[in-house]
Write a structure and sequence with these properties.
By secondary structure, the protein is α+β, with helices and mostly antiparallel strands. Helix content is 39%, strand content 24%.
Length: 214
């Protein structure tokens, strides 16, 4: 598919059907659809804040923001030797963000964006697209605040698409395609709000809440 054939409406329909777009590289204009046989998800009640991550969170020294600079977060995710985010995908997710369907959770330090994650929301499903880290543990911090926000916003499905050793260490699992589609159908029937609460908690509050629920 060429970039002219990809629209925000088409992309949202694809997510509702359980498929997502990718490109072979940043310079390849072709886009293809993916529906993995085994899907990565991060059960929101299984996310694990390790002792080392808890210590890093308590130490602080960073600021969490939501949608402060979506395009810069997307660029941070694409800025690597191998990426599936080509120009068409970059543009279409910026359009989804402008329409309120795509969001970024960002980690800022000393006035610089040092890590973050972005994804798409439909119903009570969050489709995590990519994350990046320019400082040690920045992506883990972003993920911890993201999971907390999804829990409190009423989400019931966190789709990670694929699974990596990094995600598995944080509680992610793989489920068969049929089970994923069942969970997706349930999530699409519910309502959730990514923008509530309006302000992220402090790291200390996040650690305390995870300690209480673990």
């Amino acid at each position: 598919m060429h970039r002219d054939g990809l629209t925000p409406a088409l992309l949202l329909r694809a997510y509702a059907l359980g498929v997502f777009p990718m490109a072979e590289s940043r310079t390849d204009p072709q886009i293809f659809w993916v529906d993995p046989r085994h899907r990565g998800i991060l059960p929101l009640d299984r996310f694990h804040v390790s002792r080392s991550l808890a210590r890093h969170l308590r130490k602080g020294g960073f600021e969490i923001a939501v949608n402060r600079n979506f395009a810069a977060t997307l660029e941070g995710c694409a800025d690597r030797p191998e990426t599936w985010i080509n120009d068409a995908i970059f543009d279409i997710y910026c359009q989804l963000h402008a329409q309120g369907h795509a969001h970024s959770l960002e980690v800022w330090q000393d006035g610089s964006l040092v890590g973050g994650v972005y994804g798409v929301t439909l119903g009570a499903a969050f489709f995590g697209e990519s994350m990046f880290s320019h400082r040690p543990n920045a992506s883990k911090v972003a993920l911890a605040f993201l999971v907390d926000r999804l829990r409190r916003g009423g989400f019931c499905l966190f789709d990670t698409q694929f699974i990596t050793p990094h995600l598995r260490s944080l509680g992610a699992i793989e489920i068969p395609r049929a089970e994923y589609h069942r969970r997706l159908a349930l999530a699409l029937q519910r309502h959730a709000d990514f923008l509530m609460p309006e302000l992220p908690d402090t790291p200390q509050e996040l650690v305390q809440r995870n300690t209480q629920t673990s």
